[in-house]
Amino acid sequence: MKLSYKKLWVMLVERDMKKTEFAKRAKISSASLAKLGKGSNVTTDVLLRICEELKCDISDIVEVVPDEPESVNDSESAIS
User: Fold this and answer.
1) More confident site: 74 or 5
2) Domain 2-79: CATH architecture, name and number where available
């Protein structure tokens, strides 16, 4: 399982807010913004600052999604 921040990006588009403007207002670093963009893990502190800035719940900006299944070729090479 992994986290997806797609809901966050949709919310920013709906609010006509650029990512850099949003990061500055939410007081999150460019490194954290880059991690969000890559779907990487960020601290709960960052997620809370985002929620405070956007006045929303964490479920409005992030969701848990299943990992992509391995391809058949990857599974076979692991067995060999």
Assistant:
1) 5
2) Orthogonal Bundle (1.10)
Query: How far apart, in whole angstroms, are the C-alpha atoms of residue 69 and residue 54?
Result: 33
pTM over 0.85: no
Domain boundaries, the chain: 2-79
* Cβ neighbour number for residue 75 with a 10 Å cutoff: 10
Spatial separation of the C-alpha atoms in residues 51 and 45, rounded to whole Å: 10
Note the pLDDT tens digit of each residue in 53-62: 999 999 999 9
SS (H, E, C) the chain: CEEECHHHHHHHHHCCCCHHHHHHHHCCCHHHHHHHHHCCCCCHHHHHHHHHHHCCCHHHCCEEECCCCCCHHHHHHHHC
